[in-house]
Specification:
Strand content: 15-25%
Number of strands: 6
Shape: elongated
Helix content: 40-55%
Strand order of the largest sheet: 3-4-2-1-5-6
Largest sheet: 6 strands, antiparallel
Order of helices and strands: EEHEEEHHEH
Structural class: alpha+beta
Length: about 140
């Protein structure tokens, strides 16, 4: 998976890359869906770590397909499974339905918190490479 962008900022521990406005309008099909911060001018990706490329350099962002699928699983599927298992566990222990629903919500929140804790791990696998011929690709 590769996305075209331009480096717009380099901070102490992250590199900011702006994807084109066309990219921001096509968020649903993007492998980085839910990770970037969409904007009217495009989507800004905060990649952990500094890069040795300068601001304004056209780049491609790439990530291993397997890692993006694992990230999507933990972002979308795991919270649902966690909520269902939380409900079923508390129901099996004999709690009332109201308590089981609260346990389900608690499991859902815990799974999202777990993803946010490991979000930096997923983002650290995004690679920044310069575009060979910027006029041709952008």
């Amino acid at each position: 998976m590769e996305k075209l962008g331009v480096i717009i900022g380099i901070e102490k521990h992250k590199t900011l890359v702006l994807l084109g406005a066309g990219e921001a309008n096509n968020c649903g099909g993007c492998k980085l869906h839910g990770i970037c911060k969409p904007d009217k001018t495009g989507a800004v990706i905060e990649v952990p770590g500094r890069t040795h490329y300068s601001v304004g350099t056209p780049v491609t962002l790439s990530m291993n397909e397997t890692r993006s699928i694992i990230g999507a699983f933990f972002l979308f599927i795991f919270p649902i499974i966690s909520a269902i298992l939380g409900f079923m566990l508390f129901r099996a222990l004999g709690f009332t339905e109201g308590i089981c629903i609260l346990a389900s919500i608690g499991s859902l929140i815990a799974s999202v918190a777990l993803f946010l804790a490991f979000e930096r791990l997923f983002l650290s696998h995004i690679r920044i490479n310069p575009v060979e011929d910027p006029e041709k690709n952008l």
